[in-house]
Amino acid sequence: MAAMTTVPSYSPSIWVRMCHALPRLDLSMQMRDNIFAPDSWEYQQTLLVLSSLSAIALVISLLVVLSFLIHYCCCQRGDRGEGSEEEEEDDEDGSTGHGYSGKKGRGICCVTWAAVAAVTLCCVAIGIGFYGNSEANDGMYQLTSSLLTANYTLASIDLLISDTITGLQLSVSGPLTSMEEMFSGSKPFLVSTRNCRRLSENVINLLSSISLARASEEAGLGNNSSVITPLTPVPPSVVPTVVPTSSLLPNPFTPGWAANTLMVNEDYRWLSYVLLLLLDLIVCLFILLGLAKQARWLLILMTVLAWLALFLSWGSLGLETATVVALSDFCSEPNMFVLNSTQISTGTSSDVLDYYLTCSRSMNSPFQQLLTQSQRALSNIHTHLSSLDRNALPQFPKAEKSLREVQQILNSTEGNFHQLVALLNCRGLNKDYIDSLKGLCYDGMEGLLYLSLYSFLSGLAFTAILCSLPGAWRSFPSESEEYDDSDSESEDPFTSHQDSKRFLQWQPWL
Known about the structure:
Shape: elongated
Number of strands: 2
Strand order of the largest sheet: 1-2
Order of helices and strands: HHHHHHEEHHHHHHHHH
Number of helices: 15
Structural class: mainly alpha
Largest sheet: 2 strands, antiparallel
């Protein structure tokens, strides 16, 4: 009992408590409770309302970008007129620039630096996203590892029970039957042999009450006797390896099935976020390249991709908000949901589930009486076999082979029984349960919060980028301006004469 104090405990983190305390409204704007019930339509409405906040943010972003576009389109003629006046003033002052001085130059510089600042914010968001994606993946890996460990424990329990029952059945049908035939003329030895048979059958019945299944009629599933559910008492998810013949019924829930399903979904989730992060990174880098090279076509292409990234950012924020809130509701009281869902899906007794989920020192094992009776029966069998070994073998030497076979089966049975007692203890399965909760509710929750922050910052960054890029396009000189500048330089006699003089000085043979 002292070892029970070493079982790790679980308590909701501060992030779980904060998200769990958020008010919940349904589609009719009425307050709802925050109990985790994913199958309830009222609970799903609260998640939809919270996810709609990202849709509102997307609409605001679109309105902001649209207002900037209208501003650029309406003020374009006025800016051209002001730019031409500034160019005339610069020509009078002897300036040879492209009209980037004065008020227009300051505006171009402001727009360019605004775009650079937005790209920098986007890069910071991408770094946060990579970290959050890694944290969420670590949490899911810990969850699936714990589920697989629990599944291995439960499979070992099934295997030990089946091996023990099979061995005892072989001893009853084989060597014990032969010994009864040999001891038919000696009543004391025959009584001891029959006692061994009776005790072996008793152990078989006791162990079968842990692992055998009952027909579906008893569970209220109809008249299909091929579908079976576990008897009570039974450890969580210890179900017989029988696949239902009806295609309408799902396979029995096991931790192994849950782990495999979560691993597949997690691989797709991780890959999707990596592709989204890479898309954002490519857009940011090529925007910086387009600003540096003043490549208008590159900025136009990146603007199209920035629109796509904007929608993906706000959309992912909506999914992450719903997931974070639902996960906080589950992690605040996980035992309640696991107890109800497992009891409904497997028909397991609530006492057995509560024993493994809480693993309290004040609780007794629901298998204690069965295991004690089985241990006493095995001890009595061993006593009878020892008596037969001392007294019957001198008179019936031919029974030695059958007696040794029974003793060998009994030794194997006792070894399996001790392993079964250790595995049925709540400490192992409860540790796996706590580890899975810590992976999901600590690392997984933290990773989702970082991903939500990434989506929010990237949505703001791409909104600012789409607002500043049209101004950056206008700051670039057009092809006609570049052509006029080159023609003016070639027609300048002073510039051409100086270039010819430099060319002659550079040629050493002239």
